[in-house]
Write a structure and sequence with these properties.
Two copies of one chain form a homodimer. By secondary structure, chain A is an alpha/beta fold. The first copy, chain A, folds into two domains: 258 residues, Ribonuclease Z/Hydroxyacylglutathione hydrolase-like (Metallo-beta-lactamase, Chain A); 138 residues, Rossmann fold (3-Layer(aba) Sandwich). Helices cover 35% and strands 28% of the residues of chain A. The first copy, chain A, has a seven-stranded mixed sheet. A six-stranded mixed sheet of chain A has the order 10-11-12-13-14-15, with helices on one face. The termini of chain A are far apart.
Chain lengths: 406, 406
């Protein structure tokens, strides 16, 4: 039922400040963000409009599936003829998807990083493009825009736009989150409980999308400090906006997540189980860990169920210890366990303990092959192999291995 | 509705010949066979019983989730007190799942390869075990059983049982298939159309489960010839039974699939597409290939849809050329494309052409990293990189690459 209602309300229009407006495209159709991350909570693409006495500027557009609806909706809410510029903060098609159509419709020039120009030309044959330099400003009517390069968050051409007179920063994917909200524009409008849920979604988004570029988060936060950027409002291209203290809050989380700061005693166990032997081990292990004051969170893949990989990667980012428990398969690692291991290597900071538990049936010891993936990427790894069905006699040994006693 | 009916009929009892019976466990609950292969068509576990004047023998059991129902069902159809032996052809728990319970219930001794003894001891703490040697026979009542080792199909301890007086061979996973059938026992009872469908399911099963062990298929078929095994009936542990000519037919297919014999002009394209650029390429490519007499089959992964990996691997086994088209991701291969590549390396014979198409946005050339996976495993690989959005200008070049003109 909700989806039916949403089909009529795929776009939402809100005022942020005088002259500054938000257009949200509600997306509950995408099952796999970036074609890999499961997002049952949906996602929103935020496009912004600044009206000036000398024309309007649109900041980012929406996903390319819905361009005609987007432009039709824009047309109802702003004067399309007035659009002079489209700022495209980066080229990923969930935001750049309609710049070509909008530029064709309005004759507006697209502004962005020089690399973006090449992308838009390749993706959409767009030629109406004006590159900007790092720190370059654009005066339009009563407003000044300054563009800052914050590269590799998460594409190389990422820029942010500072509307100087309003001290508003448009941040593109930075500070973005999954999830769909109708009644709130700002994070601080959520209840305390909803804020907690939102931060879990923001962490998941961070880990999935920004995780691989975490070193660049640190560099770029340093850069924004050094150039004295202290916006009163931060407007990301997904999820809710931030103002006042909540900007510092999300920035603090970005620092923690990038550094891999851990929540005390938080252990995430991910397992694959062909015939429930590994699952039994993991269940017993989680019990013992819980009884001893640890906080285990368990994700699994078996013959009837698959955990969400996007949730797994989200939870891993602030745990102390990762346990990856798996069986062998065709004299090698179980394929899904390898996929998870490789995503961990990409997305998760190295300062975590990893314990690999390998269960075998007729011989092959799987832990070494899996742990090699981690070791060569700088993780601290312990391994433990055991014969399937025999975990009860050694569960204490496994516990000691995980908790550092051995 | 079908599922509701099935819940009451989870087990089916059939007579094969005088004294020889089949118990089928219908499984429409398992979504991922071996916790990886999607099987919407379901699967059946076949257990067989031979009644002799000196007691009964049960050959294989069913998946461990349903032991009490299985034993209850057996009890209704045979005299449980008469069961003297349980032959367990290999240790994988979809067949060995209830040997412990059945052995405890009946005091029957479990017979199998020596390696199986260690597995059953580890998995289920089973000790009532009698190992048999390759070629060893067991006389029981009026029947003679001969056990043959056919190792690595697909576990090392695989044996088959020959009931000499009936010239019936019980083959465990060999000649198995996915799919659930109620009205037929034998493959040759299917209509021509249903036989065609069944062979696609059997090929999928073969590729998924036996694919990695295809060299052992060739060795073991040679072995069965050299020892003069020519059964009149072959009874696998999944799917339908074979008799007469259809035994030769399925054996021929096993030889073809193991050798990687190709269907002329069959091309399978597998793609991952983050924002539909690769998808557009693949659609245009499939059109051109079709227009030129090739038979392209397309599988894809995008933001709303994931093809079935089990179907992909099934289709690949007899194609001439595999095209893997993908985008780059975090300066590397898109993770699902890598998973598919690694499954191809495991399951598919090397005598196929592989063409890797890599689409990039801002720079990273993905084809090399993917093709390396294939090259180091002995495949013949061609690569082609192009900037996303630019395929129309080069689609002919891609066509030539695939069809061998360049």
């Amino acid at each position: 039922m909700l989806r039916c209602i949403l089909l009529k309300n795929r776009f939402v229009f809100n005022k942020i400040l005088d002259d500054l407006y938000l257009i949200r495209q509600i997306d509950l159709d995408t099952k796999y963000f970036e074609s890999i991350w499961e997002i049952p909570e949906g996602v929103v693409y935020n496009s912004y409009v600044l009206n000036t006495s000398n024309g309007s500027i649109v900041f980012d557009t929406v996903k390319k599936n819905y361009c005609s609806e987007y432009i039709e909706f824009l047309d109802k809410n702003i004067n399309l003829k007035n659009v002079k510029y489209i700022v495209s903060h980066h080229g990923e098609p969930d935001h750049s998807g309609c710049v070509k159509e909008l530029s064709d419709e309005t004759n507006a020039v697209v502004i962005g990083h020089p690399i973006l120009g090449r992308e838009l030309s390749s993706f959409y044959n767009l030629t109406r493009f004006k590159p900007v330099n790092d720190g370059e400003s654009l005066k339009i009517g009563e407003y000044t825009l300054v563009f800052h390069y914050l590269p590799w968050l998460h594409w190389p051409e990422t820029i942010v736009s500072h509307i100087v007179e309003k001290n508003v920063l448009l941040t593109c994917d930075i500070f973005g989150s999954y999830g769909v909200y109708f009644n709130e524009i700002y994070f601080d409008e959520l209840s305390v409980e909803k804020q907690r849920e939102y931060l879990i979604r923001a962490r998941k988004y961070f880990a999935n999308i920004i995780g691989y570029y975490r070193e660049w988060v640190l560099k770029n936060i340093e850069k924004t400090s050094s150039i004295g950027l202290k916006p009163e409002i931060a407007l990301p291209a997904h999820g809710l906006a931030y103002r006042g203290d909540s900007i510092d809050l999300i920035k603090e989380y970005y620092l923690k997540w990038s550094r891999g700061e851990v929540i005390d005693k938080k252990i995430v166990i991910v397992y694959t189980s062909m015939y429930r032997f590994v699952e039994e081990t993991v269940n017993d292990l989680a019990s013992i860990l819980g009884e001893n004051g640890f906080k285990p969170i368990v994700f699994g893949f078996n013959d009837t169920y698959r955990s969400s990989i996007s949730d797994i990667i989200g939870e891993l980012i602030d745990c102390e210890t990762i346990v990856l428990a798996t069986s062998s398969y065709d004299s090698s690692v179980f394929p899904i366990a390898k996929l998870v291991a490789e995503l961990i290597v990409k997305k998760i900071p190295r300062n975590k303990n990893i314990v690999v538990l390998g269960a075998y049936g007729w011989g092959y010891r799987v832990s070494r092959e899996l742990s090699d993936i981690f070791v060569k990427n700088g993780f601290n790894v312990k391994t433990f192999d055991y014969q399937a069905g025999q975990h009860k006699s050694i569960i204490r040994e496994i516990f000691d291995k995980i908790t550092g006693s051995s």
